[in-house]
Amino acid sequence: MLAETRRLEIVDTLRSNGAVTVAEVEDRYDVSAMTARRDLDELERRGLVRRTHGGAVLPSTAAHEDSFARRMNVSREEKERLAAAAVSMLSARETVFLDSSTTSYFVARRLIDAGVSATVLTNSLPVMELIFNEGGQDVELIGIGGTLRRLTRSFVGPFAVRTVQGHFADRLFLSVKGLTETGMLTDADPLEAEVKRAMIAQAGESTL
């Protein structure tokens, strides 16, 4: 198969699935990892994809993104109701992943107020600060480090993904920006999306 034909098929796959990995390109087209990365790099140069660690997403998944502080005041009452429903699902001493969304912040707030014993794993700096300052003895915190995104006040990147992969949680509570026709979850930033995908893989149950 010609390189150009292969690259066009990769773009078609992205349009259907929302994302593709280097390993998937290798397996599907029987090419080396170097060739797969070169294809994705070339497609990014043309503006057809956006490269991520280990793959690529469509540029459209990197849509406008508001800051954490701004999102805190959007649909606040709805988020508080969702948080109450989420915490009501928990049993004592469960281990929970919380993503970097503001809804997860309200889940942490409700968890503390309800006095539920739990272990929280999160890449959200505001959630870490909240639990550190107000969590008391009931909530154990495992912070997921990495590269700090100041806009979302969250830790992302390969180190964050590896940290998530080193743990398992009973539940995950997360928010996303969108959903593709094939059911793939998308986020405004591909690095955030990678952390969330890792959390989904390591959680016994995920709640969106």
From TrEMBL:
<protein>
    <recommendedName>
        <fullName>HTH deoR-type domain-containing protein</fullName>
    </recommendedName>
</protein>
<dbReference type="InterPro" id="IPR036388">
    <property type="entry name" value="WH-like_DNA-bd_sf"/>
</dbReference>
<dbReference type="InterPro" id="IPR001034">
    <property type="entry name" value="DeoR_HTH"/>
</dbReference>
<dbReference type="InterPro" id="IPR037171">
    <property type="entry name" value="NagB/RpiA_transferase-like"/>
</dbReference>
<dbReference type="InterPro" id="IPR036390">
    <property type="entry name" value="WH_DNA-bd_sf"/>
</dbReference>
<dbReference type="InterPro" id="IPR050313">
    <property type="entry name" value="Carb_Metab_HTH_regulators"/>
</dbReference>
<dbReference type="InterPro" id="IPR018356">
    <property type="entry name" value="Tscrpt_reg_HTH_DeoR_CS"/>
</dbReference>
<feature type="domain" description="HTH deoR-type">
    <location>
        <begin position="3"/>
        <end position="58"/>
    </location>
</feature>
<keyword id="KW-0238">DNA-binding</keyword>
<dbReference type="GO" id="GO:0003677">
    <property type="term" value="F:DNA binding"/>
</dbReference>
<dbReference type="InterPro" id="IPR014036">
    <property type="entry name" value="DeoR-like_C"/>
</dbReference>
<keyword id="KW-0804">Transcription</keyword>
<dbReference type="Pfam" id="PF00455">
    <property type="entry name" value="DeoRC"/>
</dbReference>
<dbReference type="GO" id="GO:0003700">
    <property type="term" value="F:DNA-binding transcription factor activity"/>
</dbReference>
<dbReference type="Pfam" id="PF08220">
    <property type="entry name" value="HTH_DeoR"/>
</dbReference>
<keyword id="KW-0805">Transcription regulation</keyword>
